[in-house]
Design a protein that fits this description.
Blueprint: H1 2-19, H2 25-32, H3 35-43, H4 58-64, H5 69-77, H6 100-107, H7 110-118, H8 134-141, H9 144-163, E1 199-205, H10 219-232, E2 241-245, H11 251-265, E3 271-277, E4 280-282, E5 289-291, H12 301-304, E6 306-307, H13 308-316, E7 322-328, E8 361-365, E9 375-376, E10 381-382, H14 383-394, H15 406-425, E11 432-435
Parallel strand pairs: 1-2, 1-3, 3-7, 7-8
Antiparallel strand pairs: 4-5, 5-6, 8-11, 9-10
Helix pairs in contact: 2-3, 2-4, 3-5, 4-5, 4-6, 6-7, 6-8, 7-9, 8-9, 14-15
Length: about 450
């Protein structure tokens, strides 16, 4: 009887949520599952967090109406607040004050719950009306799989929050059978290259930004795993690797390590590996591509970003034997791991424009200039990074000295990324190999 009463109460709250709302154009498109319209409105500068009485954002509309996950992902990539209440001061008091995660848990939508958690949804936030967490409402609903997912999310959050408030590691989730989802590339291969004291690396992963930009999901896990591969598989000494995570990857950090630290250490026979996972951004006026540091602002990208041209010029001065740059980012501003100044339109970028690459440099980029760089949710990594690591692990591309057979690695990455992007995300993502390509 209690369960029936709870169910009726929940349904009543949800009906009130729908009945007392008006909808923005973007909210209507999300509610209707119209991805093309959603993309058009976002590209035209629609406010992804615009609310109407009683505080419904487009993300609330999408979650409440079980919109396709690619629409929800698109809203989140464009900066939708994943922890926004559906009401607030001044909003109608008779409407359910809920976060998107609460609504998804209430509806028992397993995939939606997983997606929202992957984008940083906080499972501890209580509903302002009934004072219940998403876990509590899922338990009352009898949504067993959702309960398992949220229990693990809460436990993981509690453990990691005490260790590092800024870098909460997202939980591994369970599929409906109860099996943990774990990436195979997180288990490192046993083979290790000979230690090379003259190998140096800068590894950057920026997931959370000071300017409250959209999260670059899995960027921290990407960077930390790449660092492990460099040390334990490719023979890079740990003391020769700089790993910059979130707030430790400001513009001044970029300048310090790209323009001073690496030049102070690199020698004639050095191997250099540069890896970046995070947002890129275009300069709409010049067409230049920029990495977005932790303190970067796409509206002032020329002043707060770090241009690819500047990075390549600094690296090009090094007397190194080889330089590899791997970028799990994109620069068009069209979504994915890229951001854009409000009101600006996405650009078709030429990643080689006005850049003279040194003969010892090879660049691996996650996508072409007009595309986005996808995440691989079920693997917990960027799509490009996952297959880069998979190739290093499984495709015999690492030489005994720790250098990489770039043509072989790229030959593995490109078709794999294209296949998954097309099959799972209905996107075109074509990795690029630029510069020196010799094995």
């Amino acid at each position: 009887m209690k369960k029936i009463f709870t169910l009726i109460a929940i349904l009543t709250l949800l009906m009130m949520l729908s009945a007392c709302a008006t909808v923005t154009q973007l909210g209507r498109a999300a509610k209707d599952g119209d991805k093309k319209r959603v993309e058009t409105l976002l590209n035209e500068g629609a406010d992804v967090n615009a609310v109407v009485t009683p505080g419904l954002s487009p993300l609330h509309e999408a979650v409440f109406n079980d919109a396709p996950l690619d629409i929800v992902r698109l809203l989140l990539d464009k900066g939708a607040d994943v922890n926004k209440y559906s009401c607030g001061d001044g909003w109608a008091a008779d409407c359910n004050c809920a976060t998107p995660l609460y609504i998804a848990a209430c509806k028992g939508n397993i995939k939606m719950v997983q997606l929202l958690l992957n984008y940083g949804a906080d499972p501890s936030i209580v509903n302002k009306i009934d004072k219940k967490t998403p876990l509590k409402i899922a338990q009352e609903q009898g949504s067993n799989t959702v309960v398992l997912i949220l229990k693990e999310a809460e436990a993981k959050q509690d453990k990691m929050f005490s260790a590092n408030k800024e870098n909460i590691v997202l939980p591994a989730v369970k599929d409906p059978s109860g099996s943990l989802i774990k990436s195979d590339v997180d288990n490192l291969p046993a083979v290790k290259a000979k230690p090379n004291k003259n190998a140096y690396a800068i590894v950057i992963g920026i997931e959370n930004y000071r300017q409250k930009l959209p999260k670059a999901n899995y960027a921290v896990a990407d960077a930390e795993t790449v660092t492990e591969y460099l040390i334990k598989v490719m023979g890079y000494p740990e003391e020769n690797i700089v790993t910059l995570i979130n707030e430790h990857a400001t513009k001044s950090d970029f300048e310090k390590y790209f323009e001073k630290w690496i030049s102070n250490n690199a020698e004639k026979d050095s191997m250099i590996f540069i890896y970046y996972s995070g947002h890129g951004a275009p300069n709409p006026k010049t067409g230049d591509a920029y990495l977005v540091p932790y303190d970067g602002d796409p509206s002032f990208i020329d002043q707060t970003g770090y241009s690819l041209k500047r990075m390549y010029e600094a690296l090009g001065k090094l007397p190194a034997k080889s330089i590899i740059v791997a970028l799990d980012s994109c620069f068009s501003g069209a979504g994915g791991r890229s951001v854009l100044a409000k009101g600006a339109r996405p650009l078709v970028m030429n990643l080689q424009s006005n850049i003279a690459f040194s003969k010892n440099m090879t660049v691996l980029s996650a996508s072409s200039g007009e595309q986005i760089s996808s995440t691989y949710d079920e693997k917990g990594h960027g799509l490009f990074t996952y297959f880069m690591l998979k190739g290093i692990k499984s495709e015999d591309v690492v030489k005994p000295d720790g250098s990489i057979k770039m043509d072989d690695l790229f030959g593995y990455i490109k078709p794999q990324v294209e296949r998954i992007a097309r099959k799972q995300y209905n996107n075109e993502q074509t990795p690029q190999l630029i510069g020196a390509k010799k094995n």
